[in-house]
Specification:
Elements: E1 26-36, E2 45-50, H1 58-68, E3 72-78, E4 90-96, E5 101-102, H2 106-120, E6 126-131, E7 134-141, E8 144-150, E9 155-158, E10 172-174, H3 178-184, E11 193-199, E12 204-209, H4 215-219, H5 225-231, E13 240-245, H6 250-253, E14 265-271, E15 276-279, H7 283-297, E16 301-306, E17 313-319, E18 327-332, E19 334-345
Parallel strand pairs: 2-3, 4-6, 9-10, 12-13, 14-16
Antiparallel strand pairs: 1-2, 1-19, 3-4, 4-5, 6-7, 7-8, 8-18, 9-11, 11-12, 13-14, 14-15, 16-17, 17-18
Length: about 350
């Protein structure tokens, strides 16, 4: 727009501050991006957490998750009348990838807990999340959060020409023939496969590889995702593919933390069936790996590391006993990366663009 004489240029209406008073049918939702399962920024796994003051429907939540385009976006909401994010102890919690809702997500639960405890200032020592996987209880532990999650029953896959070194530890099942081809989409012939296990409830495949595999070699794995989806398109049997090992010589193989404390087991996690090629930190995978490695190593407390190029995440897990048998404790820290606000429409049409009188 041109100005004449000495007059000041008139601002275009679209350049004005579009406050919520300008669009009364809109509301602000606090949103956060959190790095979970890490004590340093730009590591661990990213999750978005959306604190909407009205309960959103599935379509709305899926639209927001697609917009963030992170592995998961979490949507907590207070369950009890008269409570809010600041004082509530009981919340519903849903998790969405960019393409679908998932039954369980550890890192997004950790991220949600971090937001409620540390960003919002919820003073409760514990919170209860009502989810598609039941009630998940989290407790504040200093700068960390302890999550109480279910463990998945493990079965061992019987595959032709594969001798299982853990025979007798887990029930055996005859694996479908396509699993061999699926495994070769991820594990090259140069890397030895020691055993294959399966967590049926979560549809997670566990592929244990050579215990002398180095961190460099584990990170060098380059799955053929298109071929994985071609072999097993619908994800009816496998929705998550875990590669794991218990390093024989952790220090020499590169599997120790900054204090040179060795990890009991390490892993990578691939899930193209739910729109996630690779996840940097997967709490739900520990619900399968914890009972798997606990049975093999004969110990309840485990220190784990999830490899991911240029990131990585650490987990302290404990397979619980007694009255809490069938549960696993997962402890981790988180870092806030982004604090912001999202503007959403406060009516059923949700994202219909508002008219601008230009």
């Amino acid at each position: 727009m041109c100005s004449s004489g000495g007059s000041q240029p008139r601002s275009h209406p679209i350049e004005r501050d579009l406050s919520l008073s300008f669009f009364p049918s809109f509301m602000k939702c606090p949103v956060y991006i959190i790095d979970a399962f890490t004590t340093r920024r730009f590591a661990g796994n990213q999750a978005a957490v959306c604190l909407s003051h009205k309960e959103l429907n599935s379509e709305e939540e899926q639209t927001i998750a697609a917009e963030f385009n992170l592995s998961e976006t979490a949507f907590p909401f207070p369950r009890e009348d008269g409570t809010n994010f600041e004082n509530g102890q009981s919340f519903s919690l849903r998790w969405f990838t960019p393409t679908t809702e998932v039954d369980l997500c550890g890192h997004a639960t950790l991220a949600t807990s971090h937001v409620l405890f540390n960003e919002v200032g919820n003073k409760n020592e514990s919170l209860h999340f009502h989810t598609r996987s039941g009630i998940l209880t989290v407790k504040k532990r200093g700068e960390e959060v302890e999550m109480n999650f279910p463990v998945y029953d493990i079965t061992s896959a019987h595959l032709k020409h594969l001798h299982d070194p853990h025979q007798g530890l887990f029930p055996m099942f005859n694996a479908p023939s396509f699993l061999i081809d699926l495994i070769r989409c991820v594990i090259p012939e140069s890397v030895a496969v020691r055993s294959v296990a399966y967590a049926a409830k979560a549809k997670k495949l566990i592929v244990e590889i050579d215990e002398e595999t180095t961190k460099f070699e584990l990170l060098a794995l380059s799955p053929n995702f298109s071929e994985m989806l071609s072999i097993h398109e619908d994800g009816s049997h496998v929705r998550g593919f875990i590669v794991t090992l218990s390093p024989k010589r952790p220090l020499q193989q590169g599997f120790v933390d900054v204090g040179e404390i060795p990890f009991d087991y390490v892993c990578r996690y691939f899930a193209p069936w739910v729109g996630i090629r690779e996840d940097p930190a997967t709490g739900s995978a520990q619900c399968a790996l914890a009972p798997f490695w606990s049975s093999i190593k004969k110990k309840k407390d485990l220190y784990a590391y999830q490899c991911y190029p240029n990131r990585g995440a650490q987990f302290r897990v404990r397979v619980l006993e007694g009255s809490e048998e069938g549960r696993v404790s997962i402890i981790g820290a988180s870092m806030t990366i982004v604090r912001g606000e999202m503007v959403v429409k406060n009516d059923p049409t949700f994202y219909e663009p508002p008219p601008l009188n230009l």
